[in-house]
């Protein structure tokens, strides 16, 4: 009797558990872990005669945790947490957004949350997906260390341009705090990118957009071209506006599974109103400033496990046409077991040419190791 | 006003009749042929993966999304062969797209009995998806395609059914031919690069005793190759069958070291010269194996 009851109980228990177990496994989001380690040495911009490379430093460049899943039949959510270094650096929400993929009129897709805006080719890509180890100078100087990564809402549609040409238009309204800066001079003083934070609690929305076109040229080659724009307030006190326009392209030739050549580049043009002078009574005269920068990169995969590439950078500053920087990098990628583990070696030369100051040249050598845990991700073009 | 409405209705009706073809996109070229066979001139078929490409690794290209954008059906192999498909389906922004999984009624081989993880390589978690290389499985594929075409266009059900029957008849005739050619080879052992031919060899009574890949999707290693050569020598394997999209250097070295013959086998329609349709594809593989056995 007892055994029968136990059996019945077990049966009920097991039956009740099976759907739960199934539901559990299918409702779990996909989790991927992508750490990037880096061994790096540079000569700190010493004079050529005294050029000595520093002792190589080994560090966690970034630790990325991706959690991705559909949240219902219409939408999916993507969350990326990131932490730099192995110390007490904070864990940051790199991106957290929901994308409504279905159910909206005219095939509209809507994205809400904190995300990397669709601006140019590289801004949306996470660093592990770049062919090189460092951000191009123009992107670093004009978009900052974090890129255009902000709270916002974005809408995109596919435009009816026939059966061959794919055309997508994306428009974003961003909170704008990641791309405002209080004091342009602070940027010049620190020599680094200045579009990072705001001290003002007031919100100055920014708008960005990108028109992207993808054209298959032949069975083995494709071309992507994008035109982007971004505008926002760069000086919250004087309410001064900046306008960025950007052209990007990517050409890929892939004659076989293990041979491919990619040529890609972006050119950014900046136009902004700046305070030229302040007189004794607080009156200001304004000036228009136009500057820009670009990079061009080539990457050749010549076997299943090796690739080599090179990049050239040239960039002015967002606040000056005479503050220039120029650089070049060569890089080698080694992928012993597909993309699950990768080693990349890069040599980079950068020359900083501040107005009136002395030119400083920095050489650096970096070795990067990346591994990826989690669902095998197919590669976007 | 009424007249105008009537004219408009007629015009719209004519326009609709003119473009009445069902738009189908398939993942593989083989599925495109099967769809065309059932759908006849009522369908317009396109496919994503060329016969010469490895279907496991396909880049997510916007041009693929564009192909799916206006399609009624997307016909797939399923069993996670097309791990790249969900992103293309989402990117197509096609609210009416029906995704067809042709594996639904196929008897599946190599279904993992333990939890799959990356230490096992890229194991297909729902079993081996290369089932279309067994001509008998084509019948289940054709049926699945038929059922879904009927869903889109119920009025053409009879037309589709008669097309299916005609194709099956041709398939049965060829099948008898292939069986005849292969029957003297029963028990022949071979080595292939990937687990692409499990269903094919099962059908024809051959057996694959080892793979050039140490684990699915993992590139060859010297130690595994050495073991494989020893295995081939000890069990008398005389054939290394290499799928059309893999490089031949390591498999070639293995074949030489083991005293075996390297032959190119083809997994998809159009993947090699002389594999323009499914019958030619199976013909090619059957002949390649038959002549390799005769030659050794
Ligand atoms: Zn496979």
SSE layout and pairing:
The complex is a heterodimer of chains A (381) and B (296).
Chain A: H1 2-27, E1 30-42, E2 57-72, E3 75-83, E4 91-100, E5 109-116, H2 137-143, E6 149-159, E7 166-174, H3 184-190, E8 206-216, E9 221-235, E10 240-256, E11 259-278, E12 284-301, E13 306-317, E14 320-334, E15 341-353, E16 360-371
Chain B: H1 2-18, E1 22-28, H2 29-39, E2 43-49, H3 62-69, E3 73-76, H4 85-92, E4 98-101, H5 138-152, H6 157-182, E5 189-192, H7 198-204, E6 207-211, H8 222-235, E7 239-243, H9 249-258, E8 261-265, H10 278-295
Parallel strand pairs in B: 1-2, 1-3, 3-4, 5-6, 5-7, 7-8
Helix pairs in contact in B: 2-5, 3-4, 5-6, 6-10, 8-9
Explained architecture:
- The complex is a heterodimer of chains A (381) and B (296).
- Chain A is mainly beta.
- Chain A has helices spanning 2-27, 137-143, 184-190, and strands at 30-42, 57-72, 75-83, 91-100, 109-116, 149-159, 166-174, 206-216, 221-235, 240-256, 259-278, 284-301, 306-317, 320-334, 341-353, 360-371.
- The N and C termini of chain A lie far apart (65 Å).
- The model of chain A is unreliable at 1-24 and 180-200 (pLDDT under 50).
- Chain B folds into 2 domains: 2-176, Rossmann fold; 186-295, Rossmann fold (3-Layer(aba) Sandwich).
- Chain B has 10 helices and 8 strands.
- Chain B has helices at 2-18, 29-39, 62-69, 85-92, 138-152, 157-182, 198-204, 222-235, 249-258, 278-295, and strands at residues 22-28, 43-49, 73-76, 98-101, 189-192, 207-211, 239-243, 261-265.
- A 4-stranded parallel beta sheet of chain B has the order 2-1-3-4, sandwiched between helices. In chain B, strands 6-5-7-8 form a 4-stranded parallel beta sheet, sandwiched between helices.
- Chain B starts with a helix and ends with a helix.
- Chain A binds chain B through residues 76, 101-103, 107, 109, 158, 163-164, 166, 168, 212, 214, 216, 219, 222, 224, 254, 257-258, 304-305, 336-338, 340, 373, 376, 378-381, and chain B through 50, 53-54, 57-63, 65-67, 69-70, 83-84, 87, 90, 93-95, 118, 122, 217-219, 245, 247.
- The complex binds zinc ion.
- Zinc ion binds next to loops of chain B.
């Amino acid at each position: 009797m007892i055994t029968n009851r136990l059996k019945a109980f077990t049966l009920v228990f097991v039956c009740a558990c099976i759907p739960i177990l199934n539901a559990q496994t299918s409702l779990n989001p996909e989790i991927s872990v992508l750490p990037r380690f880096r061994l790096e040495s540079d000569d700190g911009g010493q004079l050529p005669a005294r050029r000595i490379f520093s002792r190589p430093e080994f560090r966690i460049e970034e630790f990325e945790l991706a959690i991705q899943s559909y949240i219902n039949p219409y939408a999916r959510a993507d969350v990326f947490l990131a932490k730099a270094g192995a110390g007490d650096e904070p864990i940051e929400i790199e991106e957290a957004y929901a994308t409504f993929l279905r159910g909206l009129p005219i095939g509209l897709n809507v994205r809400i949350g904190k995300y990397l805006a669709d601006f140019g080719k590289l801004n949306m890509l996470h660093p592990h997906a770049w062919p090189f180890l460092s951000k191009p100078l123009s992107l670093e100087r004009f978009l900052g260390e974090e890129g255009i990564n902000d709270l916002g809402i974005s809408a995109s549609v596919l435009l009816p341009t026939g059966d061959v040409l794919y055309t997508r238009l994306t428009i974003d309204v961003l909170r704008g705090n990641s791309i405002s800066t209080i004091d342009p001079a602070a940027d010049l003083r620190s020599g680094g990118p200045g579009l990072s934070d705001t001290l003002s609690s007031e919100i100055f929305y920014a708008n960005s957009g990108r028109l992207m076109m993808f054209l298959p040229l032949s069975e083995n080659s494709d071309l992507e071209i994008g035109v982007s724009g971004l505008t926002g307030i760069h000086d919250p006190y004087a309410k001064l506006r900046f306008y960025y326009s950007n052209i990007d392209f990517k050409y890929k030739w892939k004659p076989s599974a293990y041979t491919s050549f990619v040529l890609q580049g972006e050119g950014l043009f900046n136009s902004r109103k700046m305070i030229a002078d302040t007189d004794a009574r607080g009156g200001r005269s304004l000036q228009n400033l136009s500057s820009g920068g670009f990079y061009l990169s080539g990457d050749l995969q010549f076997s299943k496990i090796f690739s080599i590439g090179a990049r050239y950078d040239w960039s002015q500053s967002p606040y000056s046409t005479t503050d220039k920087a120029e650089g070049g990098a060569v890089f080698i990628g080694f992928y012993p077991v597909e993309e699950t583990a990768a080693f990349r070696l890069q040599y980079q030369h950068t020359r900083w040419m501040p107005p009136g100051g002395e030119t400083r040249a920095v050489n650096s050598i970096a070795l990067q190791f990346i591994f990826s845990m989690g669902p095998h991700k197919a590669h976007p073009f | 006003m009424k007249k105008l409405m009537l004219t408009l209705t007629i015009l719209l009706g004519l326009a609709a009749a003119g473009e009445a073809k069902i738009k189908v996109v398939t993942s593989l070229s083989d599925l495109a042929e099967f769809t065309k066979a059932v759908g006849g001139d009522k369908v317009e078929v396109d496919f994503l993966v060329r016969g010469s490409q490895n279907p496991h690794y396909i880049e997510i290209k916007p041009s693929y999304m564009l192909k799916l954008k206006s399609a009624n059906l997307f016909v797939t192999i399923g069993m996670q062969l097309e791990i790249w498909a969900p992103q293309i389906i989402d990117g197509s922004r096609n609210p009416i797209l029906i995704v067809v999984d042709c594996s639904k009624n196929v008897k599946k081989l190599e279904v993992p009995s333990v939890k799959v993880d990356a230490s096992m390589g890229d194991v297909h978690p729902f079993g081996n998806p290369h089932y279309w290389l067994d001509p008998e499985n084509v019948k289940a594929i054709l049926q699945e395609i038929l059922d879904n075409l009927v869903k889109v266009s119920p009025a053409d059900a009879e037309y589709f059914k008669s097309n299916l029957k005609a194709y099956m008849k041709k398939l049965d005739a060829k099948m008898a031919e292939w069986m005849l050619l292969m029957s003297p080879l029963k028990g022949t052992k071979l080595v292939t690069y990937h687990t692409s031919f499990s269903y094919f060899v099962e059908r024809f009574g051959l057996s694959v005793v080892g793979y050039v890949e140490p684990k699915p999707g993992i590139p060859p290693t010297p130690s595994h190759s050495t073991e494989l050569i020893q295995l081939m020598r000890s069990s008398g394997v005389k054939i290394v069958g290499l799928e059309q999209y893999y490089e031949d250097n390591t498999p070639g070295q293995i074949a030489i070291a083991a005293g075996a013959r390297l032959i190119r086998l083809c997994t998809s329609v159009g993947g090699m010269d002389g594999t323009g349709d499914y019958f030619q594809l199976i013909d090619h593989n059957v002949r390649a194996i038959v002549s390799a056995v005769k030659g050794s």
